[in-house]
Amino acid sequence: MLSLPFIASTPQNIKRPKVIVPFAPRTLDEARAAGEWAARARKAGADAMEWRVDALADSVDLLDADGPAAQALEEAQLAIQDQRELPVLITVRTAAEGGQADLDDAAYAKVVSGLIRRTQLTPPLGTQPRIAVDVEVDREPAAQLCKQAGELGVPVVASHHDFDRTPDTRILLAKIRDMLLMGADAAKIAVMPKEPSDVSRLLEACASAVEVAEVPVIAISMGPLGRSTRVFGGDFGSAATFATLGDEPTAPGQIPVEKLRSVWTELY
Ligand SMILES: O=C1C[C@@](O)(C(=O)O)C[C@@H](O)[C@@H]1O
């Protein structure tokens, strides 16, 4: 298994999942503030940041592998590394899964593959990878992207989102199994509950996946109804949770990182 420093992987700290705070700049100017933003995130208690590259989709061409978005990302990663290396999860969330990047499978493969290649070049020689890449398991090139990342030593957090419903438990577990078969270094599911039993079912699926998976599992129930999973998901084996840094949430139900920390400090 590849090391994935921003994901809790030992039973001792599982109750306090790692906190990943999304950074979603919409313009290159906003992206240039990444180093500063990372410093604030670290101070507020983030264990890692997620760079939502898809948020740039309206202002730059994500498909241009050597274009401004890729260069901004590289500059920003260097700036972030100066901030005592807050680990980064790089995500291109497609419109099909609630993101801003309206890409077909071929375009998704091109953008993510380009990021994997650049990511591999970014950490200074001889240091551990501190950067992982999100791969949506439902995109046709997912397996090929996981393979490429594995060959280049870039950890993959495979993901599946459903903003409309919580699929059957059988489907949730099959998604996680697909992620593991593709060689992902972590498996993440974020789904929308319609009723309380959807939330408990998601947590149950998480707990049973954790028993067999050899990599960290992240399970999130979104929206106000699913908020408990963002706070107490660790009790069911979920290895990480996403929280805001005073910015707009990147998914419904996210809570501020400071609030999350203070609840945990009181309870655990
Ligand atoms: O996969 C996830 C989880 C998430 O959707 C959430 O529900 O917090 C937020 C996204 O930014 C991230 O890529």
TrEMBL record:
User: What role does it play?
Assistant: Involved in the third step of the chorismate pathway, which leads to the biosynthesis of aromatic amino acids. Catalyzes the cis-dehydration of 3-dehydroquinate (DHQ) and introduces the first double bond of the aromatic ring to yield 3-dehydroshikimate.
Fetch the NCBIfam families from UniProt. aroD
Lineage of source species: Bacteria, Bacillati, Actinomycetota, Actinomycetes, Micrococcales
Q: Name the gene behind this protein.
A: quiB
Q: Where does 3-dehydroquinate bind?
A: E50, W51, R52, R93, R230, T250, Q254
What is this protein called in UniProt?
3-dehydroquinate dehydratase
Gene3D superfamilies in alphabetical order = Aldolase class I
Q: Is ATP-binding included in the keywords of this UniProt record?
A: no
Q: Which species expresses this protein natively?
A: Brevibacterium ravenspurgense
Catalytic positions?
H161, K188
InterPro entries xref list: 3-dehydroquinate_DH_AS, Aldolase_TIM, DHquinase_I, Type-I_3-dehydroquinase
